[in-house]
Amino acid sequence: MSTSPNLDPRTVASFGDEWHRFDQQGMAPGEAERVFGDYFAIFPWEQLPPNAEGFDMGCGSGRWARFVAPRVGRLHCIDPSSALAVARQTLANQSNVQFHQASVAASGLPPNSQDFGYSLGVLHHVPDTAAAIRSCAELLKPGAPLLLYLYYAFDNRPRWFRLLWHLSNAARLLIRRLPPRPKQLVTDLIALTIYWPLSRLASLAEAAALPVASFPLSYYRHCSFYTLRTDARDRFGTPLEQRFSRAQIRQMCSAAGLVDLRFSTRAPYWCVVGVKAKGAGAE
Questions:
Q1: Residues 28, 96: contact at Cβ < 8 Å?
Q2: I need a labelling partner for 238 at 20 to 30 A (CA). Which of 17, 83, 178, 198 fits?
Q3: For the domain bounded by 9-153+243-276, which CATH number is listed?
């Protein structure tokens, strides 16, 4: 296991601030379940053993752990930020959850000990994403699944779509430097003036039986304004962000000893699940 912390202190502090502001209690249960279903659509629940033990790497507010914990024997929620206090509140009624304020490279869990793991929207925010995937895979028993969600490099989008992202990223590089309160005000304004109109335009187009897959922000067409605010803060306020093509993600996962890789064919992109190769990491 690497001794490098593999974290960016500014990004850790930013997420601590974000999850204290958005503890996800304002997210409607039905909406949360739908988004959870999008992330976990390819997860092989049926392959887990009885009373499975696993981890949520970068659990944040615990918004996904609250759906996973009732399905398993033990869940380790791991996060290096102050958001772990929010996760403790979110999961206060889940007696099978253990909390670890730790980084992906030094989680404290033994190698080859976990029946499953997942990390959603986290590992593209660390300095070395490939090493982070290896750190997660090292914790798994051979044959155990790992579910990841990594920001995509728009490799399945047209050129004009990628150009729009470059423009938005130029704004992010400025907004990420703001102090917490001004940053929140600016990202709320983005949610109101950009996320809301474009997502509702996609909703109207869908109602008119028009294809909306290529609409910017069409994924948010059924999401609440609370979610728009959360994700605008996440997208524009985070200091460190990396994006990867499907081919790059496949290469990193394979290098970490994951096999039988399967990518989700629906948004959000890219969600991928793989299993630790038999014999990989065994003593």
A1: no
A2: 198
A3: 3.40.50.150
